[in-house]
Amino acid sequence: MMNMKYDYYNQTGVFKPGYNLQIGVCDEYIMHMEIFSNPTDTRTYIPFMKKYKDIYDRYPRWPIADAGYGSYDNLLFNVINGMELGLKYNYYAKKNSSDFKKQIYNPMNWQYDEQGFKVCPQGHPFHIEKDERWNTKGEYLQISRVFECGQCHTCLVKDKCTKAKEQRKIQINYALNELLNRVDENLGNDEGKEMKKQRCIQVEGAFGVIKQDMNYARLRRRGRLNVKTELLLIGIAYNICKYHNKKSRKRSQIIS
Q1: What does the pLDDT look like over 63-104, one tens digit per residue?
Q2: Judgement on whether residues 226 and 151 belong to the same structural domain of the protein
Q3: One matching Pfam family, short form (predicted)?
Q4: N or C: where does the chain have the smaller number of CB atoms within 10 Å of the terminal CB?
């Protein structure tokens, strides 16, 4: 039972039987697919990629995924296994928008000084380290540090300086910041922009063809093994149709 996305298939917002289908597409062909009982895409990425490696004995050079996949665990998994960072994080689009960059009192828009401390728009560095917070709930250990501005009690705009839960304090995970900066750099160059465009065309297009053109929007079988077998047959049919269409187009181009 899963809480489905709110679309025209499900207008009630209740839990219904279903699976979270993940596919990997390369050159318009479905290379790998897997089903999960977890509706959260973030937690499906690592097991999906591990099974991909079991099949092809390697990881892809540059996996591209939509927003929501770019968590700390997933990005660090890419680094450890020699893959480029192309996973958009959940606020990627918002962070790179002009409206967001105008929010000068948001700590995410603050610059670092020479010593590596964040500096608020009033020129006050957050340099007083209070404590260290360890997060062991995920795949990899996360360590964040808490900093406090020593001049916020006299600042006239202290209520604007930070949107953190505790006023005048910010929590920084330097490892995560470095990973996110590399994502911004990779997706901001020409190759990254082309990869983002192709992800939208190929992956979303594959789902669209299967649901609309092949009229397949409901599973006919029950049980994880039966469902996966059914979906694999659909994926094979999709790839055969894709190959046939490409071959027909190539033949018509030669004739013309």
Answers
A1: 999 888 999 999 999 999 999 999 999 888 888 788 888 888
A2: no
A3: DDE_Tnp_1_6
A4: C
Strand 142-148 and strand 20-26: the pairing is unpaired
Task: List pLDDT tens digits, range 189-222.
Answer: 999 899 989 998 999 999 999 999 899 888 888 8
The closest alpha carbon to 35, from 50, 23, 25, belongs to 23
Q: Check whether residue 86 and residue 193 sit in a common domain.
A: yes
Side chain identity at 57, as an amino acid letter? D
In a domain, 180, yes or no: no
Q: Which domain holds residue 156?
A: 109-172
Q: How many domains does the chain have?
A: 2
Cα distance between residue 63 and residue 31, in whole Å: 12
Structure tokens at 70: 């770019």
CA atoms within 13 A on the CB side of 242: 18
**β-strand pairing of 20-26 with 15-16:** unpaired
Same domain, 135 and 198: no
